[in-house]
Design a protein that fits this description.
Blueprint lengths: L1 H7 L2 H30 L1 H12 L3 H29 L1 H18 L6 H15 L2 H10 L4 H12 L1 H19 L8 H23 L12 H21 L3 H7 L1 H15 L2 H14 L5 H25 L8 H19 L4 H22 L9 H16 L1 H15 L4 H4 L1 H21 L1 H8 L1
C-alpha cells in the first residue's frame, strides 16, 4: 500500500514529508550554524590573538587544528553512545557542553590555554554532525535524503555569511566593553546561543517517527513503514553492527575520500579573512568580514540548488566528481592570480562554491548503503577521519606561509592536491565496485 501511494503521488506522502521538514530542518540548521560559528570564530579572533599573545601563523594553524584531534578521538564513541541513549538526550548534551567551553575561551590567558580549550571543544562537539546525519536517516526516505542533507549543510557557508560581518562587528563594537578585548567577546557571543539551543532541542525533538505526537496516526504509520522497508533493504548489504562497519573496506575508503575532500575545504574557512586581508592591506576588519561572506553566500545558494537538482538515493559519485573538478581548476586560477584582486576574488568564490557543495553531495554515498548500528558507527568513522583534515590542512597552510614568507598562492597547493587525490580515490572505488560487472560481461 505504501509503494502504491508513493508512485501515485498520494497527498499523505507529501504532507508527511512537508511537516517533518518544517519541524526538524530549520531547527537543525540553526543548531549547525551556531556549531560551525563556534568552530571557526577563531579565524576572526586571530588578529586579536596575534596582538595579545604574539601568536604566529604556525601557532594559529595549530590552535585551529587541535580542535580536530579531540574531535576525531571522541567521534565514534560519541555516536555509539547516541545509539544507546537516543539523539534527543545526547545531542542536547553535546550542545550544552560545547557552548560552555566555547565561551570559556574568552578567559584564555595565553596561547597554551587556547590550545587546551580548543582540544576540549573538539571533544565536546564530537558526534554532533554524524549524529544529525544518522538522525535524518530516521526521518527521511532515500529519495529525499540528499535534498535534506544538502539543505541542512547550507548551514556551513551560511555560518560564514553570518559570521563574517557579525564577528567583524563584534570585534569593533564590543572592544573594551567590561574591560574585555573584542576578540574575547567573539567567543562569548558564540558560546551562549549553543547552550540555549541545546535546551530548545531537548524540549522539541523526538527520536523516531513512532513517538512524534505532532504527526497524525496515519502519517506516523506511513513514515515508519517506509523507513523500515528501506532499512531492511540496506541491512541486507550493509555491515552488521559497530565492529563490522569500522572494519568495512568501503567505509574506510569513503573516510579517505572525505578526509581529502575536507583538506580541500577547511583552509577556506580558517584562512579566508587572512587571504582577503593579504590582497588589500587597507581593508578594515568590518570590510574583511563582509568580503569574506560573499564566497560563502554564493556557496549556500549553490548547495541549496544542487540538493534539489541532483537525483538522490542511487549513490552516484558523478555529482561529487564534477564539484571537485571545478574546485581544482578555480583554486589553480586563484593561486596564480592573487596579483589581480578582481580575478582572484571571483575565482576563490567559485572554488569555495564547488568545494563546499561537494560535501553534501558526498554524503549520499555512505547513507545509500549503511544501516542500523553500522550506520551510526560507519558515518561517525567517515566523519571523524575526514575531519582530521581540519587539523592537518589549516596547519599545513600556516606552515607553508611561514616557510615561504607569506606566499598565499603556494599554500593553495594543499587544496588543489587534496581534491585531485579525492577524485582519484573515487575513481578507484568505482573501478573495484564495477569489477564484478565487467567480469560477467566478458564471460
Amino acid at each position: 500500500m505504501v509503494r502504491v501511494r508513493e508512485r501515485a503521488g498520494d497527498p499523505l506522502r507529501a504532507g508527511t514529508l512537508r511537516k517533518v521538514t518544517w519541524r526538524l530542518v530549520p531547527l537543525l540548521m540553526l543548531c549547525y550554524t551556531v556549531n560551525y560559528l563556534d568552530r571557526i570564530n577563531i579565524s576572526f579572533a586571530k588578529f586579536g590573538l596575534e596582538k595579545s599573545f604574539g601568536m604566529t601563523a604556525t601557532q594559529y594553524g595549530f590552535a585551529a587544528g587541535i580542535f580536530f584531534v579531540g574531535y576525531v578521538l571522541a567521534e565514534v564513541p560519541s555516536n555509539m553512545i547516541m545509539t544507546k541513549v537516543g539523539a534527543r538526550i545526547w545531542i542536547t548534551r553535546i550542545m550544552v557542553t560545547w557552548g560552555i567551553i566555547a565561551a570559556t575561551l574568552a578567559a584564555a590567558p595565553n596561547v597554551e590555554t587556547v590550545y587546551a580549550l580548543r582540544f576540549l571543544l573538539g571533544i565536546a562537539e564530537a558526534g554532533f554532525f554524524p549524529g544529525i546525519i544518522v538522525y535524518l536517516t530516521h526521518w527521511f526516505p532515500n529519495q529525499q535524503r540528499t535534498k535534506v542533507i544538502a539543505t541542512f549543510m547550507v548551514s556551513i557557508p551560511l555560518s560564514s555569511v553570518i559570521g563574517g560581518p557579525f564577528n567583524g562587528w563584534v570585534l569593533s563594537a564590543f572592544d573594551g566593553v567590561w574591560g574585555l578585548d573584542g576578540w574575547r567577546w567573539v567567543f562569548v557571543v558564540g558560546g551562549v546561543p549553543a547552550v540555549l539551543l541545546g535546551v530548545v532541542f531537548f524540549l522539541s525533538a523526538t527520536d523516531r517517527p513512532a513517538g512524534a505526537r505532532w504527526l497524525t496516526p496515519e502519517q506516523r504509520d506511513w513514515l515508519t513503514a517506509t523507513l523500515r522497508a528501506e532499512e531492511s533493504q540496506r541491512t541486507a548489504a550493509a555491515p552488521a553492527g559497530h565492529r563490522a562497519a569500522l572494519r568495512n573496506k568501503r567505509v574506510i575508503a569513503l573516510a579517505g575520500v572525505y578526509f581529502l575532500l575536507q583538506c580541500g575545504a577547511y583552509p577556506l574557512t580558517y584562512w579566508m579573512p587572512s587571504v582577503i586581508k593579504g590582497v588589500d592591506r587597507t581593508l578594515s576588519t568590518v570590510d574583511v568580514g563582509w568580503l569574506s561572506a560573499v564566497p560563502f553566500l554564493a556557496s549556500a545558494v549553490c548547495m541549496f540548488l544542487a540538493g534539489r537538482g541532483v537525483k538522490g538515493g542511487d549513490g552516484s559519485a558523478r555529482p561529487v566528481m564534477i564539484a571537485l573538478a571545478v574546485s581544482v581548476v578555480t583554486f589553480t586560477v586563484t593561486a596564480v592570480s592573487l596579483g589581480t584582486p578582481l580575478l582572484a576574488f571571483a575565482s576563490i568564490t567559485v572554488a569555495t562554491m564547488a568545494a563546499q557543495t561537494a560535501k553534501p553531495l558526498f554524503w549520499s554515498l555512505p547513507t545509500a548503503f549503511l544501516a542500523g548500528a553500522g550506520a551510526a558507527s560507519g558515518i561517525a568513522l567517515i566523519n571523524s577521519l575526514g575531519n582530521a583534515a581540519g587539523f592537518i590542512s589549516p596547519f599545513a597552510v600556516g606552515w607553508i606561509q611561514d616557510a615561504s614568507g607569506g606566499n598565499v598562492g603556494l599554500s593553495m597547493t594543499v587544496m588543489i592536491l587534496a581534491n585531485l587525490c579525492a577524485m582519484a580515490v573515487i575513481v578507484g572505488l568505482w573501478w573495484f565496485a564495477s569489477r564484478p560487472t565487467r567480469v560477467r560481461a566478458r564471460r
